[in-house]
Amino acid sequence: MVRFFSTLQDISAGSIRLNADDSKHIRTLRLRPDEQFIVCDGAGYDYICRLGERGDSTYAEIIEKNKSSGEPTIMCSVYMAYSKGDRLDFAVQKSVELGVKKIILFESERCVAVPNDVPKKTARLQRIALETAKQSGRGIIPAVSSGGSFESIVNEIINSSALSMLFYECEDHLHIKELLEDHLAASNGYNTCGTKPISIITGPEGGFESHEVELAKAKGIKIVSLGSRILRSETAPIVALSAIMYQTGNL
User: Fold this and answer.
1) Per-residue buried b or exposed e for 48-85, using 16+ beta carbons within 10 Å of the residue's own CB
2) What is the pLDDT along the chain (251 residues), one digit of tens a residue?
3) Does domain 76-247 bear CATH number 3.40.1280.10?
4) How far from 178 is each of 42, 162, 174, 249, CA to CA, in Å?
C-alpha cells in the first residue's frame, strides 16, 4: 500500500490535508476514490485513508488509525563522519531502513571530504531519509543534521545516551556482541532504560586518529570492535545497527 507522511497539524477528526507534493503524486498514481493508502503522522501512527467519493487529491478521508508497525522498540542515534561521493547517501538510506532514530554528521580529522554547503548537504540527505521512510514502512522520518566537530558530538552523546559506542578498527578486546549482552543483562532489557538512545559513532574513510579515540574514551564512550575485518565508512554504521537491532529483538 502506497505511503505518505503528514504532520499532526494537518490531521483533523476525519480527514488529513495532503501537501502539494503528495497530492501531485496521488494524481500521478491515478488512485481511484475507493482505493486505500496510508498516511503517517510522523509520530508513530498510521492512518488508512481513501480519497472519498469526490476523489479530491488534496484531502484524505480517514478510515482507521493504527500504531506504526515499522518502528523498533529502542532508539538508536548514528553519528557518522563525512565521507566522499555517494557513501553518505547509501549509509543514510540503509540506516533508515534498519530503524535509526536520527543521524548526525560530523567532521573528523581524517575526513577526506567535508561539504562546502553543509545545510544543502543535510537537506539532500533528509530527502533521502524521507523517501526511504516511505518505502520501508517507518512510523517517523529520522532527522538528519550536522553536529559540527568530533568534540562537539562527543559532548552531546555523553549527556544524552543510555549507551554510547565508538567503533575503532584497532580495538581488539571489546566486541559489540559482548557489550550489548552485558548492557541488556544489567538493565534487565533495554526497554527499562527510559527514553535515552543507544548512540554509535563511526569514522571516515581513513578511520579515527588515536587522540580522537582517547578523547571519547576519557568521556566514558565505549571503544568497540566490529570484528577482525576493516569495514568501509558506509558499511560500519549498517553493521552496527544490524547487530543492535538483532540483539534487542528488532530484526
Assistant:
1) ebbbeeeeebebbbbeeeeebebbbebbbbbbbbbbee
2) 899 999 999 998 889 999 898 888 888 888 888 889 999 999 989 999 998 766 677 889 999 999 998 899 999 999 999 999 899 999 999 999 999 999 999 999 999 888 999 999 999 999 999 999 999 999 999 999 999 999 999 999 998 888 999 999 999 899 999 999 988 887 766 554 456 789 999 999 989 999 999 999 999 999 999 999 999 999 999 999 999 999 999 98
3) yes
4) 34, 16, 7, 16
Q: In the CATH scheme, what is the homologous superfamily, with its name and number, of domain 3-67?
A: Hypothetical PUA domain-like; domain 1 (2.40.240.20)
The strand pairing partners of 198, in sequence order, are: 76, 163
